[in-house]
Amino acid sequence: MDSFLIKGGAPLNGEVTVSGSKNAALPILLASIAVDGDVQYGNVPDLRDIRTTIRLLNILGRGASLEDGRVLVKNGEMGIEAPYDLVKTMRASVLCLGPLLARKREAKVSLPGGCAIGARPVDQHLLALESMGASFDLQNGYIHGTCPDGLKGAHFSFSMPTVGGTENALMAACLAQGETVMENVAREPEIVDLANFLNRCGARIEGQGSSVITVKGVERLYGCSYDIMPDRIEAGTFLVAAGVTGGELFVRNCPAADMAALLGKLREAGMEIEEREGGVLARAASPLKAVDISTQPHPGFPTDMQPQFMVLLCRAQGPGMVRENIFENRFMHVQELVRMGADIQVNGPSALVRGTGRLEGAPVMASDLRAGAALVLAGLCAEGETRVQRIYHIDRGYERLEEKLSAVGADIRRVHEQE
Ligand code: EPZ
After folding, report:
1. What pLDDT, in 10s, does the model give residues 140-160?
2. Cis omega before residue 299 (within 30°)?
């Protein structure tokens, strides 16, 4: 297994470019299942989860290939099963449920397990699809869904604004007979990108980005070409990197319009954040001020930036309260930061960070994608050397991270280790 070896202390300076969004690309690539034609994608990040998605599309019978940030998904006769061995490596495979039911009227998807940050149930996905006429049974760890007469438009409301649930329902509703009205939907920018892609294929979706989405079902979706939106979480990670290392970074393609809550908190902490043509300039402040954050569905503070922001609080002076409202176990990075000298007390969904300004290098272990990213940020600003182990978690969501960071002055390299 690979590790990152990081020598902390160098302020990051220069320009870094944001890749395409993992959390937009995964549903948008799987949406091709519902498209009766070839689809050409651009600005696709080369990540582990993307390669897993391409493998899944090939298993389902769609010839898919990734080349220099471009993905071609060819049309073809499809199967209906997403196997356990693949789904166990990527929960987001469950997003093939909606498009398979829409196109093939049947789907067999291994029930995705939980992960380090929580149980990650999919009850809302199934309820929404059942509202449209699908029926499910759970056998031997598989979700088997059928809708022999096709999906029908429906009017339903989610119990919470689930990103994946909204995406599954949206992809299904495009080919349902009649109109679907979905309430209490997720408003994340990745939902908007998915809806824009589906409309490019001929779907009739309105309201994306608001709490109510309306879809008028169509007979067929047509092949097209589409570029994935930039990754707001990768971008936010680089903005925090500038803050914790005391540097100045121009983050090219940073989608500032989708990041108001995070940018506001970075400014509250004293950073200079300038939205410019083509990106955002982030300048550290010293000292950083401690602030409180509370994760919320978009447009609130994103849960996917909570671990990274906690490192900034470690570097700030004074107490900052972190409240994690989305996932029940998203403080796995705390113990690792404490081993680096951080003073953090967890109490249920809250963590009180008493910033002292300094961290010490140490061997630490990534438990999940964003916790891993946080440990890299901690290593970049710690005194001495940090070895971040199990960085396969990080490779899921950050394209060429060590290259991008080295190019702006970080002392970081990937080492291969027998564990
Ligand atoms: C997406 O996960 C993202 N993943 C996550 O990013 C992100 O943290 C999350 O949305 C929230 O923004 C992808 O887009 C691939 P949810 P998803 O359904 O869709 C509960 C990363 O680091 N819930 O919005 O799984 C659930 O338990 C990853 O890039 C149900 O109870 O998130 C959670 O508490 C991590 N029943 C909350 O809703 C359901 O049927 C939000 O989950 C569905 C969800």
Report:
1. 999 999 999 999 999 999 999
2. yes
